[in-house]
Design goal:
The protein is mainly β. It is built from 2 helices and 19 strands. The strands form 6 sheets. A 5-stranded antiparallel sheet has the order 6-8-13-10-11. A 4-stranded antiparallel sheet has the order 12-9-15-16, with no helix packed on it. A 3-stranded antiparallel sheet has the order 3-2-4, with no helix packed on it.
Length: 295
């Protein structure tokens, strides 16, 4: 595709119909490769939506979008639409090829372990991020699944004392740790941590995270870590790149008792912000009192 239009006034989009009467948009902004670059295109809104290609492509682009949602339909038509306002003139929109094809079958490319957080954690912390696993796939047809992850608490000082629970979370293609979707939950064993499930993978980099619940009586100064023993993807045992990456997390003591905030440096903290940041990091195990020195 190629386009050079009056930005946000004029634009193009790609539509489909399954009855020859009602037309709908294929996709939304960024749901495919080079697929629509903006919304709020006023002229397109007369067709029922305002997302599409507008402004400039700065040369020819290959645009791709998954059409699996139309699989099995006995009748499908496609069309490009272009809409323009009455003010300002530019060159418009062009395409020189259109092809529908079966995308390649999904295949496993690699798996790699990594640390995304080696900052301190604290006694009683739930779901402390310990180790990430990135699983890379190619292709979309017949998706494969993550079936099992096996870890060891390698590098942890006293795992049987400091860890009360272990879980694995998935964040799909998002490389940021989060706990909104759980792959599996395992009772902690000081020797091995095994998680099994059936998580369908997406094309690209899929992210999974081993997390520990830190025991409330974990020993301050000890460290938490892990390594990947094995991984099963698509019912096949796979090798892991860098299964034991460098890094670990230091356990801090949860807060309790009285602390002094003194701008002059003779207390525990120089400011309220510093004290609150430490409180959020370490949590509490008993009453915490902050006293502020004058000045």
């Amino acid at each position: 595709i190629w386009y050079k239009t009056d930005a946000w006034d004029d634009g193009a989009a790609f539509q489909y119909t399954i009855d020859g009467i009602n037309w709908d948009w294929v996709g939304q902004v960024n749901t495919g490769t080079n697929w629509y670059n903006d919304w709020g295109i006023s002229a397109l809104s007369y067709f029922g939506d305002d997302e599409g290609w507008t402004n400039q492509s700065y040369g020819w682009l290959q645009a791709h979008h998954n059409l699996v949602f139309l699989a099995g339909q006995p009748f499908v038509k496609f069309r490009f639409i272009f809409a323009a306002g009455i003010s300002d003139v530019d060159e418009g929109f062009a395409f020189d090829a259109f092809r529908i094809f079966q995308p390649p079958y999904m295949s496993f490319i690699s798996a790699e372990a990594f640390h995304s957080d080696t900052t301190e954690t604290a006694q009683g912390k739930e779901a402390a991020n310990i180790l990430g696993v990135r699983i890379t796939t190619s292709g979309r047809t017949s998706p494969i699944s993550l079936n099992a992850l096996h870890f060891s608490p390698t590098g942890s000082t006293l795992p049987h004392t400091d860890i009360s629970r272990s879980r694995v979370f998935g964040t799909e293609l998002n490389p940021v740790f989060a706990t909104w979707a759980q792959f599996d939950d395992a009772a902690f064993s000081p020797d091995s941590l095994s998680f099994e499930g059936d998580w369908q993978l997406e094309e690209g980099d899929n992210y999974f995270w081993l997390a520990y619940d830190v025991a409330s009586d974990a020993i301050p100064g000890n460290r938490l870590d892990a390594s990947v023993d094995s991984i099963v993807v698509g019912d096949t045992l796979r090798s892991v790149i860098n299964p034991d990456p460098t890094g670990s997390r230091l356990i801090l003591e949860a807060m309790a008792g009285e602390y002094i905030i003194d701008l002059n440096g003779s207390g525990d903290y120089l400011s309220f912000n510093e004290a609150v940041a430490d409180l959020i990091l370490r949590g509490v195990k008993d009453t915490v009192l902050f006293r502020v020195k004058p000045g």
